[in-house]
Known about the structure:
By secondary structure, the protein is mainly α. It has a domain at about 5-80 and about 100-205: Serine Threonine Protein Phosphatase 5, Tetratricopeptide repeat (Alpha Horseshoe). Helices cover about 40% and strands about 5% of the residues. The protein is built from 19 helices and eight strands. The strands form four sheets. A two-stranded antiparallel ribbon has the order 1-8. Strands 2-7 form a two-stranded antiparallel ribbon. Strand 4 and strand 5 form a beta hairpin. Helix 2 packs antiparallel against helix 5, helix 5 (about 110-130) runs antiparallel to helix 7 and helix 11 (about 245-255) packs antiparallel against helix 15. The N and C termini lie far apart (about 50 Å).
Amino acid sequence: MNKLLKLRPLAALLVTAMLAIPFNSCTDLEAEVYSDLTPENFPTGELDVIASFASCYTNLYGYQNHNGYMSSIEIASDEAMIPQRGNDWFDGGIWLRQHQHQYNPSEGHINSAWTFLYRGALQCNDVINLLNSEAGRAAVSEADRLQFIGELRSLRALFYFWLIDAFGDVPLVTGDEEAVDVQPTRTPRADIFNFIVSEVEDAKGSLSREVGQATYARFNYFGAEALLSRFYLNAEVMTGTARWAEAAAAAERAMDGPYELESDYHANFAPDNDQSFAGTSENMLVIPYDPILATGFNLPQMTLHYNSQATFGLEETPWNGYCSLQEFYESYDDNDLRKGEINNQTTPGNFLAGQQFDQNGDSIFDGNTPLFFNPEVNELFPNAERTAGVRIFKFHFPDGSAQNLPNDFPLIRYAEVLLNRAEALFRQNSGDAEALMLVNMVRNRAYGDEDNGYDSLNEDRLLAERGRELFFEGHRRTDLIRFDRYGDEWDFKPASDATKQIFPIPADQLNANRNLTQNPGY
């Protein structure tokens, strides 16, 4: 039976509803419409209302789509790149510019990111308004209605956090405006930040404290506190005022729940990491991907060499694109279990490196050249070697995969909460013993023993440990900015100025909304 049909009653109803909701692709380049609900399509009845609620979560399926939000933030960081391999992957130079922080307002992938994020936030607006309407109040119980609203306020806050992190000042549209079809002006980043913090602080009390099937892939109380710890950790970047104590306190409240570190790091990213919708003990909020009903996670296609099809028995040929940077890959010790073993595709690891083999154990070749993923990338363009760069394997690929993975993607993970609290404590007192202990908890799991813990912390160690632990989970660009390292030189990237910490407002959006203005430096 398909995993999306194995849920308890409420969640099963949500999934049934999801299948009736058309998904708007994050690659839609049209200017954003600030409300989709009209009197003609306004939902009525319990199933319609729950379907509308569920559709706000299904918007997240677009998070991993190539040429959108995840691509934009990862390729702009120091943990992933897309070299031009001869005739492959030039794509008008978009990924070279993204890597080197030379992006411009005409980049299609940045416009796709904007559209995806606003689609998510604005659909939450519509459904919150629906739940507050007479029809919404009549359709579901008051307890469910209040919980649904609390979840959607938290989810909307996450979308707006991603927006201000990526673009700075953006329009804040909440659905409370008298006319949502006007062309909105930009709201200061700090004001939006304060709004989303207040939203989650106010909403968290209405959220369930249950952890299990009924709340899987949905915001619960502990996930909201974890999200607040992330918000407060970035308060200084967003507003100019640090809120380290509040970050530490929110993380501590999130830690008071039943979540804990998985004994096996890689279990969090395995094809069966939903574990019959109980989830792992560590993943606090996930995108519940499915290769048929909830598609969008096509990492094998994005990263593997064409001939890696033979390694995993893939249904389709991969595209030979994404790889990691040598310096980032080599920041892992060889005995760090997160790294993965060279010349070994059967043991999970964050990377595929070395000689590649087919399912019979025979070496694979690229023409007459052994298919050997070399950490060193010879050049960014125009002729990067076809085998250059270790490949991204964090989400283990099941044999016989189609384009889309079944692995659920963690948006919030308990290990992040530990590292959030550690950093917040360190920022207040660099010698804080608990901060050191929390970082070493993460390291002890990574090495499988207690022999590799730090004896002290500094900013370099904190940033490096977050990078190794949270690799390719969407954190690295934000972390680099917070640690003031985003403008640094790294492989094939010169130093960049502070204006590149936020992306340009897309030209399509400027053309559609005369009230928008461009960010400095573009």
